[in-house]
Every structure is written in C-alpha cells, then in structure tokens.
C-alpha cells in the first residue's frame, strides 16, 4: 500500500493551530485546470452522503453546478456505512463512486485499501487548509457536534450545557437521544465523565464504556440517521439529542424553535473519498477538484453554517452566518482526532453494537 504519510498526504488530526492558520489565510491563486467539455454518455457519479438539509445544501452548491459545468450527472443517496463500502470493494461490485466519511472511518478505510488515491494533477490540494488534506480523502468542511433541545419543551434553566450535565438525569430530566455509532459517542462519554478536552486522546476506552453504562438506561433513542437527530426533537419525541450545529441552524431558519449549548462542541471534519474500483474514477477526480473551489465552499457554508475547508473563505461568509460557524478555539470544545481511530473503528463498532444489545 502507498505510504499514507508521504508528502502528498499532508495532515494529521485537526489542531487549533493548523485549522486557524489555514482558514484565516489569504485565498491562494487558482491553478489552471483543464476541464473537458461534455461528459461521456456513460459517466455519472453516485455519492453516498448523510441526507437531509446537508445533502440539499451540497446539491445547491456542488452537485447541480458541477453537472451544469461538466454534463456529468450526480446521483445522491443517503446513508453511507463503512461496512457497505468494504463489501463493495472486496466484491468488486462498486455501487457508490464516492462517499462521505466520518472521522473514525478515515484511517480505517485507508488501512483496508477502500479508497482511490487523490490525483493531485487534477485536484489542487493546496487550495485547502492543511488539516483538510490527506492522500486518499479531502475534508469538505468542518462541523460542530452539539447537544440541542426544544425551546418549547425545556425552559432555559433545565437545559444541560455540558456533557456532564447531559449525564445528570436528576438535575436535567428529559427524554434523551444519542447516535447509534461509536464514533463521537465514545468521546462524548469521556467528556461526560470529566475528561478535559485537551487530555482526551488517547481515549480510555474502558472508562468510556463505563460512562456509557451510566447513561444507557436513560437514552430513549439511539438515532441511526443524522436528519432524525433534529426531527425527533422537533416532533416532541425527544427533549434533547446530540446533533450538529448546521442542523440546528437549518431548523431555526425553517422556524423550528430549537437551540443548542455553546459548550462542549465536538469539532470535526466531514471527509469525502472515491471508492476503490469505481468505474467513474476520472469523473470523481473532477468532482473532487470542484469541491476545492473557494467560491463553491463559500456558497455551501453560507447555506449550512459549516466552517470552510478552503483557505481564505471564512472572512467572506455572510455576517449572519458567522455566529453559527464552529469555533476550534473554544476551551471546552474538543477537536476530534481522526488518526487515533486508525485500526480501531471495526473492533469498537462491533463492541458498541453488542453493548447496545445487552
């Protein structure tokens, strides 16, 4: 396997220094990219993403403009799973050309050989902040995982602000939700148990599961799909849930009375990769290049409130969106470490699923 730590694979985990240095920097000059005119009749891109408002924002900022420019259709499907990617690659029956990835899948997918190497003769990775660049994946944006609640069902003094509060069911009663995956849930459990954000990695897995044991009886929903994290709160089925800042922002824009805690955010990247063995690799690389363009990043972040992965974009965002952009410098916030998960995701996912059934 190609060495993932080569000079082209520029990045380790997201750090405050690399994030801020890149995002706040001046926009780099756009390299000359030769874009062929019309797509071949057989070319298309099937991309598995998280669905909901985020998929709609990507459609508006990336998918439709890419098709308009290149003639290559982009077919969006919801619900990427690492296990399904693995099956497709190993069976050589690739249905998804590209996939969105959570932090915990990145290095595991690299180790399993599930992704195509990014062709840097097509994709100018230096358009991106250093923390967004890897040999096999690019970060499309940075997000914040937060706890949200309904302003209608929970008065201000009954809303948990930290994950330790979230675990305190006596002081902060209410119907709770968490994700049904180990990535991010493991980190939340450690924050709830009092581990300072700057001391959380390497994760104490046993301590995390003991912390999860405490909250397990009080979780009404282990949420599978990202859109449900706000939909269940909006519908009154949950009083509070782990979700993403962009989801709360989207709900508020739609007039839904949701709010969120300003503390204990999980700052991470949403990654995108091309699935190994895709029949549409050339189109996928053109699509990846399109995602690096500062004007496309600006359009997307102005819709969602995510932080851009391209340099020089943050200061160009609309004034009304800036309060919703994640803050990596917040002292109570945790910057997720993608490399800590290397080789651990499959084992911890299996353990977590078994734990859920006990």
SSE order and pairing:
Layout: H1 16-23, E1 45-49, H2 52-70, E2 74-78, H3 82-91, E3 98-101, H4 103-111, E4 137-150, H5 163-167, E5 176-179, H6 185-192, H7 205-215, E6 219-223, H8 228-234, E7 240-244, H9 245-253, E8 258-260, E9 266-274, H10 281-291, H11 294-304, E10 307-308, E11 334-335, H12 345-357
Parallel strand pairs: 1-2, 1-3, 5-6, 5-7, 9-11
Antiparallel strand pairs: 3-9, 4-7, 4-8, 4-9, 4-10
Can you summarize this structure?
This protein is an alpha/beta fold.
Distance between the termini: 38 Å
Instruction: Assign the CATH topology of the largest domain.
Output: D-Maltodextrin-Binding Protein, domain 2
Structural class: alpha/beta
- Average pLDDT value? 89
Q: Give the biggest beta sheet.
A: 11 strands, mixed
Q: What's the level 1 CATH class of the largest domain?
A: Alpha Beta
- Provide the gyration radius in Å: 20 Å
Report the principal-axis shape: globular
Approximate strand percentage:
15-25%
Helix percentage: 25-40%
Instruction: Specify the CATH architecture of the largest domain.
Output: 3-Layer(aba) Sandwich
Total number of helices: 12
Number of strands: 11
CATH superfamily of the largest domain: Periplasmic binding protein-like II
Give the uncertain stretches in residue-range form.
Answer: 1-14, 24-36
Counting structural domains, the number is 2
User: How would you spell out the order of helices and strands?
Assistant: HEHEHEHEHEHHEHEHEEHHEEH
């Amino acid at each position: 396997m190609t060495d993932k730590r080569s000079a082209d694979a520029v990045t380790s985990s997201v750090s405050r220094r690399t994030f801020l240095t890149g995002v706040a920097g001046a926009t780099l000059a756009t390299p000359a990219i030769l874009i062929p005119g019309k797509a071949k009749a057989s070319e298309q891109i099937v991309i598995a993403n998280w669905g909901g408002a985020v998929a709609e924002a990507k459609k508006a900022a990336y998918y439709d403009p890419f098709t308009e420019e290149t003639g290559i259709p982009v077919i969006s499907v919801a619900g990427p799973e690492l296990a399904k990617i693995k099956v497709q690659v190993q069976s050589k029956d690739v249905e998804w050309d590209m996939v969105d990835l959570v932090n915990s899948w990145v290095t595991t997918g690299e180790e399993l050989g599930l992704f195509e190497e990014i062709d840097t003769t097509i994709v100018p990775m230096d358009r991106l902040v250093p923390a967004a660049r890897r040999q096999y994946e690019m970060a499309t944006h940075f997000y914040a995982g937060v706890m949200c609640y309904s302003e209608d069902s929970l008065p201000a003094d009954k809303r948990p602000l930290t994950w330790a509060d979230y675990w305190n069911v006596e002081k902060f009663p209410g119907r709770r939700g968490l994700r049904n995956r180990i990535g991010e849930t493991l980190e939340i459990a450690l924050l709830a148990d009092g581990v300072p954000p700057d001391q959380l990695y390497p994760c104490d897995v046993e301590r995390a599961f003991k912390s999860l044991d405490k909250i397990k009886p009080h979780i009404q929903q282990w949420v599978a799909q990202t859109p449900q994290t706000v939909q269940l709160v909006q519908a009154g089925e949950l009083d509070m849930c782990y979700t993403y800042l962009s989801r709360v922002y989207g709900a508020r824009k739609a007039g839904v009375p949701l709010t969120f805690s300003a503390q204990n955010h999980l700052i991470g990247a949403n990654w995108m990769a091309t699935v190994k063995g895709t029949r549409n690799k050339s189109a996928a690389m053109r699509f990846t290049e399109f995602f690096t363009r500062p004007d496309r990043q600006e359009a997307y972040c102005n819709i969602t409130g995510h932080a851009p992965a391209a340099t020089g974009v943050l200061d160009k965002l609309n004034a009304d969106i800036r309060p919703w952009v994640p803050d990596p410098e917040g002292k109570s916030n945790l910057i997720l470490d993608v490399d800590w998960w290397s080789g651990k995701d499959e084992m911890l996912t299996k353990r977590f699923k078994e734990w859920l059934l006990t």
